DUF1508 domain-containing protein
Amino acid sequence: MGAFVISKRFNDEYKFVFTSRKGKIVFTSLSYELKFECEENIEKFKREIDSADFLKFKSSGGKFFFKLILGGHHFATSRKYTTSLRLQKGIDEIVKYGSSSEILDFTGNDCIFLD
C-alpha cells in the first residue's frame, strides 16, 4: 500500500507526495501555503479518485510522465518514467491504493535522532 507524505519545501510552503508500496515517489503535489490545505486536498483526492484524469506526456528527453487532473484543475505531476508501461503501472498503483493510503506528516522540526 502507498502513502501520502506531507513535507515542507525550502520556501516554507507545503507539498505532499504519493509514494508506492516500494517507497518510490509516484507524484508530487502543487505547493500549498498552509498545511491544512495539503490535508484537505489529500482527503478530497481520496474521495474523488474515480473522477481523476491522467494526462500522459513524453518529455523532449524521451521520458514519460503524467499530470493528475482533479475537478478540472491540475492537482499533481508524476515523476519521470523510462517507458510508457512503467508510467501506466504508476497510474494503476494510484487507482488501486490511493483511496486507502495512509497520510504521513514530516513537517515537524523534531529531531528523531539523539546526539
Remarks:
- The two ends are 33 Å apart (CA to CA).
- The mean pLDDT is 90.
